[in-house]
Amino acid sequence: KITVYTFLLGILGQAVTPFIALGVGVNITTGPGWRYLFVIGGIIAIIALVMRFELPESPRWLAMRKRDIKGAEKVLDSMEKLAVSKVGKLPEPKPQDVVIYENKFPTKYLFKKPYSTRLGILAAMWFLWYIGNYGFLGDAATLISSLNTSVSPNAILYIAVGAIGYPVGAIIMLFVADRYERKFVILGDTVVWLIGML
Fold first, then answer.
1. What positions does the domain Major facilitator superfamily (MFS) profile occupy (predicted)?
2. How far apart (Å, rounded) are the C-alpha atoms in residues 79 and 139?
């Protein structure tokens, strides 16, 4: 569910952007116009970059990769203090022996069976999905405007209304993601996506 919440926050940007474009298109008829959208995106990217430095490093990664035990303990202490400030006193952790296996997986195995077939399917799926999804979304306004249909004058509004489906779909996944196997969820999503593209 944490993954879905993260995706939901990110996807809200895609849902809001067309409405921002509507405002920019209406209020700025000459001059830079739509270029302000890139300025808005750039500001958000800078904010994300600054916030990145506030994120704590993974204690496990510090301990295993950098052999920085003190750094890992420092991060854990700060996490514990934050948890105590939010929920109060924490129960004492139960001591247990942890065995860590660090078997490396050579990349060349990905190109041998059975992984090569799976890798091929994954690559084809992502290629077709990106072409179908972002290829359409990137040029949708221009494409719709050039068709001279009843929605052509309001192409951005048409896309903005459709973009509402992004957060709606993510919210639905909050209730579906952990109830069904991923393969069935992905299949169902793909069918709905295909119908929407048609």
1. 1-198
2. 44
Helix (H, G, I), strand (E, B) or coil at 19: helix
Q: Which long-range contacts (CB under 8 A, 24 or more apart) does 51-60 make?
A: none
Report the distance separating Cα 126 and Cα 121, nearest Å: 9
Residues of the chain scoring pLDDT < 70 = 1-2, 4, 24-34, 37, 66, 96-105, 137-138, 141, 149-153
Locate 183 and state its tokens.
Answer: 């393969």
pLDDT tens for residues 63-105? Answer: 877 677 888 889 889 888 888 888 888 888 777 666 665 566 6
Taking the CB of residue 154, how many other CB atoms lie within 10 A of it? 14
Which class for 21: exposed (0-12), middle (13-18), buried (19 or more C-beta within 10 A)? buried
Q: Which residue in 60, 46, 183, 39 sits closest to 125, CA to CA?
A: 183
Q: What is the dihedral of CA 188, 191, 195, 196, to 10 degrees?
A: 60
